[in-house]
Design brief:
alpha/beta, Rossmann fold, 3 domains, ten-stranded mixed sheet, five-stranded mixed sheet, 32 strands
Length: 577
């Protein structure tokens, strides 16, 4: 090779490098890409779902069927990319926080604090799942992600690349006075909730605020009592006020929660006299549901205080519900309603503990110290969707999201549907998540032996399974045979009408699904459906991508045709490329 040709070759290499540098990010999140076994196996095996028949729960056939999928969420999300593309309204996830304390497994190993690729592994893990999740959201969809300070910075940059940023909500999940860590420089009590939408046009529902109460005194019969309590190594006296003066009250149309209230109270005794103001109080209902417990921060020397206020009535005034306030307050009501944004700081530390207690009451033993609060889940769902929403949680854990959906449906007769995905690490799915949902639907006995009424609902339980991925006719046939559950999920038709070797028919209250495994059975299938009133989604097995339109011309007004497994394979080729 002469010198001139070597120079030309070198110049060409330089130009290629320039183009490569131009393509690279100038700003953004960059990490060391790490191979994940759960992802790599999809090059050889394609995920499908298999129903666990004996775990089905049905209380009302006219209500939506909720789904619980046991298996790695990458595989579950891959299946949902076919069955639920652009069908999901709300996603909430509580992923591993990557603390280094055995909370995050990558390739069957816990990632510890000393792992030099700790953050890269977590980002590789999350990126793949978040991208699959985005395909499931409607254009009006929203995603909420809980996280703490270990990965919040990295997660925000990652999600900025995939979704449309709305806000970060600061949530107090632990009471620092109760869980004092004397070794820490700062007492950790906050977590973060990242809020993103799929498109820039989406808007969170704003808070409906009604104004106002004024100059009304709600008196507490008991006198102020001083109670000595220990906080850390400091003894303080906790006082309760003898009188409340309601300054203003802001609420949402919720029959259980007074969202925001401003009050002024007076405390008088020999040791302390003063006035406290509290601008944001959240009532906490007692188990009997009759009293509301208000947490008042600026009360007494220690800055803490709780007071149960009896509810005089549970009636509405001018269509708005007021809790803990006498009915004759109506003379002070201004009926104007104002829409305002929500604060980005909430205290759910008490609800966090209460959720752990609730699970203990349900199972008869302590399973977790704290859990994500049900009330937080319900609030997120309410502000971001309507009563017919589809809610997905693909880090479902103990099933709090499903619990919240069932409670909301009971409260407002909604038809929300949840999809929960979780692995079975430490038997979390089989021993906690599924039994919890079953108890909530059907009812259970608490620790006192009292019967707790079920909320009702339907559930189907699936496990991820696999078929060979090679492009052979044999594998296509096998995928079609294993796709029945996926097609029923896609069409939401779970009631079996006809089950034959060559074709099957399922239905719901609105339409039917037909699955034809043998093209020679098309005439028999058409003859069968002619006597059935209703629309059909028909899936016909084809080794190519043939739709069989000509064979269905005489019933074309009644059917919508799709070839299988090609429609499924197209989705998988896009995901696993």
């Amino acid at each position: 090779m002469n010198k001139k040709s070597e120079i030309e070759k070198f110049k060409a290499k330089v130009e290629r490098l320039k183009k490569e540098l131009k393509r690279r990010k100038k700003y953004g999140l960059v990490w060391e890409e790490k191979t994940e076994e759960m992802v790599e196996m999809c090059k050889e095996k394609l995920p499908v779902l298999k129903e666990v028949k004996n775990k089905e729960i049905t209380t009302d056939k006219d209500k939506p069927v909720n789904l619980l999928i046991e298996g790695d969420n990458y595989h579950a999300l891959s299946v949902l990319n076919y069955t639920h593309a652009k069908k999901v309204d709300v996603i909430y996830i509580d992923p591993p926080y990557n603390t280094g304390n055995k909370d995050f497994i990558f390739n069957d190993r816990y990632v510890d604090k000393e792992d030099s690729y700790r953050h890269s592994k977590w980002l590789a893990f999350m990126e793949k799942r978040l991208k699959l999740a985005k395909n499931l959201l409607k254009d009006t969809g929203v995603i909420f992600v809980s996280i703490d300070d270990n990965e919040v910075a990295q997660l925000k940059l990652l999600m900025d690349e995939i979704f449309n940023y709305i806000s970060i909500i600061n949530i107090q999940m632990r009471n620092p006075e109760r869980q004092l860590n004397l070794k820490a420089d700062f007492q950790k009590s906050m977590e973060y909730l990242l809020v993103y939408s799929k498109t820039k046009t989406y808007r969170i529902k704003k808070d409906e605020v009604s104004y106002n109460f004024s100059d009304y005194k709600y008196k507490i019969k008991e006198k102020a009592k001083g109670k000595e309590i220990l906080i850390g190594n400091r003894k303080v006296i906790q006082f309760m006020p003898t009188e409340y003066e309601i300054v203003s009250c802001n609420n949402i149309n919720d029959p259980n929660i007074l969202r925001s209230i401003s009050i002024r109270g007076r405390i008088k005794n020999a040791q302390f006299t003063g006035i406290f103001y509290e601008r944001y109080l959240r009532p906490r209902l007692k188990e009997d549901g009759r009293d509301a417990l208000y947490k008042v921060f600026n009360m007494g020397d220690d800055g803490l205080g709780y007071r149960y206020i009896k509810q005089p009535s549970q009636k509405t005034i001018n269509g708005v519900y007021f809790q803990g306030v006498p009915l004759d307050i109506r003379k002070n009501i201004n009926n104007s309603v104002k829409l305002q944004p929500y604060p980005d700081l909430f205290d759910y530390s008490e609800e966090n503990i209460h959720s752990g207690i609730l699970l203990r009451d349900m199972f008869g033993k302590k399973l977790f110290e704290t859990l994500k609060p049900i009330e937080l889940m319900k609030w997120l769902i309410n502000i971001s969707s309507n009563e017919n929403a589809v809610i997905l949680d693909f880090f479902a854990g103990s099933g709090t999201t499903g619990h919240a959906v069932l409670e909301l449906n009971k409260e407002d007769s909604g038809n929300r549907q949840f999809i929960l995905c979780t692995n079975n690490e430490n038997n979390i799915c089989t021993d906690v998540c599924y039994p919890r949902i079953k108890k909530i639907i059907e009812g259970y006995k608490n620790l006192k032996g009292e019967q707790v009424e079920g909320l009702g609902g339907n559930l189907k339980y699936f496990k991820t399974d696999f078929v060979d991925a090679g492009p052979t006719d044999k594998n296509k046939i096998k995928l079609t045979q294993q796709a029945t559950e996926m097609l029923c999920i896609k069409e939401e038709t779970f009631e079996k009408v006809l089950d034959q070797k060559k074709f099957k028919i399922f239905k719901n209250s609105n339409h039917y699904t037909g699955i034809i495994f043998d093209q020679l059975a098309i005439p028999t299938f058409k003859k069968t459906i002619k006597s059935i009133k209703g629309r059909f989604s028909v899936y016909v097995f084809s080794l190519s991508d043939e739709t069989f339109d000509e064979e269905f011309t005489d019933v074309k007004q009644k059917v919508k045709l799709s070839p299988i497994p090609e429609a499924i394979l197209r989705v998988y080729r896009r995901i696993f490329k």
